[in-house]
Write a structure and sequence with these properties.
The chain is an alpha/beta fold. It is built from twelve helices and 17 strands. Strand 9 and strand 10 form a beta hairpin. It is globular, with a radius of gyration of 24 Å. It binds flavin-adenine dinucleotide.
Length: about 450
């Protein structure tokens, strides 16, 4: 614990890493460009659905501040819609073994900052520039940059070989609303895919004013959902959301009929960015480098809801590697090896996310029909969002999918038999007990 560590950026990666290091006695200083008050009163940033493993890491770090208030999501519904006839082409709903949650980052990060300062974390409220980094690398043994989509992240060069996108694949519009009706898919995210048009995701979450729904529209550039630029105020954005749902996803529009309102005046954002992978190390001056973590170096489109989960997975790896490295210098070799481990963990997840921007393969379409037909497959897919690496190996061909269906069904039959066998045995034992004298 003799090393000093600076973390720049008070988001999912920076705050979680700071909490974990603080808990084990490291001398950590966090640099945040915004105060808790500014974060809380700023614009929404994300819909940040975090799955079971990420939530477990937050819990372990003592950052599960919202367990009582946040909705527990337990299903994932997937619908492919016909872009012309506006009907469902395919639909399935899977159940997750553990719940997942979405807490507004304004609520979460402002609270985490307060909690961590109370626990003794040193926080400097300033926007860190490149010049400031030149000083930080002299003052600290390790400087971890977790500045997400911020300018400072551009210090890390784009890794052409690992990057898939040259331009933004989608235009994003996010709205937090109150008043959305439940409908069939109210126990988790309802994901709707409209080929050539875009996607619409809606998920129960927690915001400043309590429980809400987070609506995310992903527009294919030039497609029918790419029509938000003309909206110049919040009411126009809300009206546009309802108009698009009414036309393209009538079953989702029905959920708006109770009357929906924005949760607050900063509950809507619209924009675009190019997802990319950046090199994890930036040399700031001879012999001195900074290390990138989270969106700063692995920036993804939210189409699969994995950015925050990837950042959380990487935090765990970086934390473990810092602990293992006690006493030694955090040189570029350590940085490269640590980043390689993060890449190893997230590479498939990133490739899987990017596959959503390609026309679906025959195997992917078959998987969707099998998920609609067999609940076991729908549940397996829903659970895979916690660790998409579990999709590798069985989703790539029809044969592999068929094998999975067969195996999962056999497993369920076996489980049913064991339970029905155990039940009479259990009853017989109970009956025998009542007959036996004391
Ligand atoms: C619309 C949308 C929906 C999403 N939905 C999901 C989802 O469902 N599930 C999921 O897992 N992920 C989702 N994501 C992605 C997720 O929000 C991010 O991947 C995650 O927040 C990344 O964490 P981070 O710490 O790397 O960056 P951030 O959380 O963005 O934090 C970066 C922090 O650095 C600060 N900062 C920037 N520059 C400086 C500077 N120079 N000095 C000091 N501080 C600075 C910023 O103010 C910010 O607080 C979504 C993203 C978007 C845009």
């Amino acid at each position: 614990m003799d090393k000093t560590i600076a973390i720049i950026g008070a988001g999912q990666a920076g705050l979680l890493l700071a909490a974990k290091l603080l808990n084990v006695g490291y001398d950590v200083t966090l640099y945040s460009e915004k105060t808790p008050h500014e974060i809380r009163h700023g614009y929404v940033t994300s819909s940040q659905g975090l799955f079971a493993s990420s939530l477990a890491m937050e819990r372990e770090a003592g950052l599960n501040c919202f367990e009582q208030a946040v909705p527990d999501n337990t299903t994932i519904s997937f619908t492919t819609a016909d872009p012309e006839h506006h009907t469902k082409l395919n639909a399935w709903k899977g159940h997750t073994d553990s719940c997942y949650q979405a807490v507004d980052q304004r609520v979460k990060f402002s609270r985490w900052l307060d909690v961590l300062e109370q626990r003794g974390l040193k926080v400097n409220y300033q926007s860190v520039s490149k010049q400031a980094c030149e000083k930080l690398v002299d003052d600290y043994d390790l400087v971890v940059v977790c500045t997400g989509k911020g300018e400072l992240s551009r210090l890390f060069k784009r890794d052409e070989a690992k990057s898939y996108h040259q331009k933004p694949p989608r235009k994003l519009t996010l709205l937090y609303v109150h008043g959305l009706l439940g409908g069939d898919n109210s126990s988790g995210v309802a994901a709707n895919f409209i080929p050539g048009v875009g996607e619409y995701f809606v998920m129960p979450g927690l915001t400043l004013s309590g429980r809400c729904h987070m609506m995310l529209f992903e527009a294919v550039p030039g497609g029918a959902f790419d029509c938000w630029d003309e909206c110049d105020n919040n009411e126009a954005m809300l009206a546009k959301a309802k108009e698009l749902l009414k036309e393209y996803l009538p079953w989702e529009y029905e959920r708006c009929l109770g009357g929906i309102t924005l949760t607050d005046e900063k509950a809507v954002i619209h924009g675009e960015f190019t997802p990319e992978i950046r090199e994890p190390i930036a040399t700031i001056k001879p012999g001195k480098a900074i290390f990138g973590l989270g969106d700063a170096v692995m920036l993804n489109d939210p189409i699969t809801g994995q950015g925050g989960n990837n950042a959380t997975r990487s935090v765990q790896i970086v934390f473990d590697e810092i602990l293992k490295h006690q006493g030694k210098a955090f040189d570029t070799q350590w940085m490269q090896q640590t980043s390689d481990k993060c890449w190893e963990k997230n590479a498939f997840i990133i490739a899987w996310t990017n596959s959503f921007f390609e026309p679906p393969t025959e195997a992917a379409m078959y998987l969707m029909t099998q998920a609609q037909r067999h609940q076991e497959i729908a549940d397996k897919l829903a659970n895979a969002f916690d660790n998409p690496n579990t999709l590798a190996g069985w989703t790539e061909s029809k044969q592999a999918i068929d094998r999975a269906v067969f195996f999962l069904k056999a497993q369920n039959k076996c489980r049913d038999k064991v339970t029905s066998f155990r039940r009479p045995l259990h009853l017989a034992r109970a009956r025998l007990k009542t007959r036996l004298p004391n």
